[in-house]
Amino acid sequence: xxxxxxxxxxxxxxxxxxxxxxxxxxxxxxxxxxxxxxxxxxxxxxxxxxxxxxxxxxxxxxxxxxxxxxxxxxxxxxxxxxxxxxxxxxxxxxxxxxxxxxxxxxxxxxxxxxxxxxxxxxxxxxxxxxxxxxxxxxxxxxxxxxxxxxxxxxxxxxxxxxxxxxxxxxxxxxxxxxxxxxxxxxxxxxxxxxxxxxxxxxxxxxxxxxxxxxxxxxxxxxxxxxxxxxxxxxxxxxxxxxxxxxxxxxxxxxxxxxxxxxxxxxxxxxxxxxxxxxxxxxxxxxxxxxxxxxxxxxxxxxxxxxxxxxxxxxxxxxxxxxxxxxxxxxxxxxxxxxxxxxxxxxxxxxxxxxxxxxxxxxxxxxxxxxxxxxxxxxxxxxxxxxxxxxxxxxxxx
Length: 397
Description:
- It is globular, with a radius of gyration of 21 Å.
- By secondary structure, the protein is of the alpha/beta class.
- The chain has helices at residues 39-52, 83-91, 100-113, 133-136, 142-146, 156-169, 173-180, 182-185, 241-249, 253-262, 265-270, 276-284, 288-311, 322-327, 329-336, 348-353, 376-392, and strands at 2-8, 13-21, 24-33, 64-67, 78-80, 118-122, 195-200, 206-211, 214-218, 317-321, 358-359, 368-371.
- It contains 17 helices and twelve strands.
- Strand 1 (2-8) and strand 2 (13-21) form a beta hairpin.
- The chain folds into two domains: 2-122, Nucleotidyltransferase, domain 5; 156-376, Nucleotidyltransferase, domain 5, CATH 3.30.420.40.
- The strands form two sheets. A six-stranded mixed beta sheet has the order 3-2-1-4-6-5, sandwiched between helices. Strands 9-8-7-10-12-11 form a six-stranded mixed beta sheet, sandwiched between helices.
């Protein structure tokens, strides 16, 4: 089964083409486009290239297109990308303005360009469907909750991959098997606990606690704006700060929203850049605001990791994924440094030289630290594959 995964940004389109057959998984092709202003044109060009490269004989050779949809109003899971999905994306467009319009547009374009090919959406919130109310509800009036204000959490595909891969790396095949089929079988019991803190650190960052392959909560909340400071998003903020600034500086609600979502985060703290590499360079050259930005980011990572450590009564592993988590040994050291007495013993030689998958703690470290390169697209392809298989089964009589 050939499945195209479409990753749509506000001005970008990236894709990966997979071929799945049972346990066999192959990445056939990948690519992308930047500064996109016409999704229809780049989708058609993508399909043209895949045919010219010999990966597709024709559009009919494609079995499905999968989408990493972020947030839908009253909808989650792995579902057909139909009118219900479009309505759900539109319902929360104001909450995820950088993501929902792009995915809605992409789904519509694929329906136009490939009307006979199945379209399947895997919402990032799906991985958090078993989170307890105590970890997903805000202390807001009931009318707010009924309107949809709650912690949804995001980066679900990335954290699901970490849940499965960390279990495989540490010999917990029982947990790995459960994660593989999680959305189909639900929260099945595991005899021996397996506790992981997953750190997805990149332009957008989040920390998730994972118990026996299932998320128990995440640093992100109602929208992708919450939790850790992002590249240019504020992260966690006391709600009274907004009306205060509206009165103090005469800002409109729209101006506050723009500043918090476009001018905050690492950019707002450092005054230098929203790219951690630039911020680090500035800090090394003596820029105190840049050093503060790094320290705030590290503090927030430790804060959320510590919260899940406490919630799960300890951990078996902490995993680093995402561009920042995978390529910054100094950051992994800084995050784990205060945990030396609690059982994380880094192998600094391995940590300093590792930029791919691996274990960065000593063999006798009670808690293992892992680097796991992000592979959200593979997770989506697997779920689309299962969805397609289930859809092909004849109905019971």
